[in-house]
Amino acid sequence: MPFLDLPEVRLFYVDHPPADPTRTGALATPTVLLHGLWSNAEAWIHQLPHFRARCRTIAVDLRGHGRSGLADAYSTDRYAADVAALIERLATGPVVLIGASMGASVTSLLAARRPDLVHAVVSVDPDYAGADDDRARMRALADALDGPDAEATALDIVDRLVEGPDTPPHVDEWQRLAVLRLSPETRARTWRQNAFSPGGLRFRHEADAVLRERSQPVLALHRDPERLRADERSFAHPASRAILVSGAGHCLHQEIPEYVNAEIDRWLATLSLSSGDVSSRDAFGEER
After folding, report:
1. Which of 64, 143, 182, 272 has CA atoms 20 to 30 A from the CA of 29?
2. Continuous H helices in the chain
3. DSSP for 13-27?
4. What does pLDDT average to over the chain?
5. Cα–Cα distance for residue pair 79/210, rounded to 1 Å
6. 187 and 145 in contact (C-beta within 8 Å)?
């Protein structure tokens, strides 16, 4: 199985070549898929065969998740640095980043810091730019995830997020099993650091500046109208688009995969995926 050994952590990933690069609609630009909090690369089971049919497709277990190793730091910038290292190691050239929930925060931060690595961004019900007055509730949940009823708290969080009016039961079951694979300590630390580490995008005050730095085209699928409006205000590229999705739970890519895949396909077809400009500085700290 493919792993990337970094100084802080070992990452698991899958890397699929395009099944038929000559087919109509084939993309020269690779796609990288980033899952959400407490999930893993298997969350993309409906997207992996779809995109690998037309382009090189990569999915990674972020640090602390799935088959990847544990670490001390689980902040958004550490996730983004890991993905940057993976893209560079695989020598893909600039990619289309597709992220769900927390993975969308990672894609947005990476797009802002490393425009040389990112052609375009797709955010699937992103967790960024939440209401600033939600901090107290998020801290209370973080404390509960460290408490005696940690497992029940985690499962309740998942149930409330996943369940929409028409959510199939198997989506909730899949997410519950993914959560139960993680230790209580990992669930608590990833939750707290994702929400409250410096540089995080969970709340609107911190997120706005980073989102405005994305120079690439962005496709954002939202359930929350307020988050959608915050995303739209940040768009810098004329091809960017935000879509409000109703009647579904948080895991849009698992619940309504045909719709999500079709919207991404339709939007990507409007873009030029030729090589973009290469920036001269690695925003994680090194000259290039």
Report:
1. 64
2. 48-52, 76-90, 102-113, 135-145, 150-162, 169-180, 184-196, 204-212, 225-234, 252-255, 257-268
3. EEEE--S-TTSTT--
4. 92
5. 15
6. yes
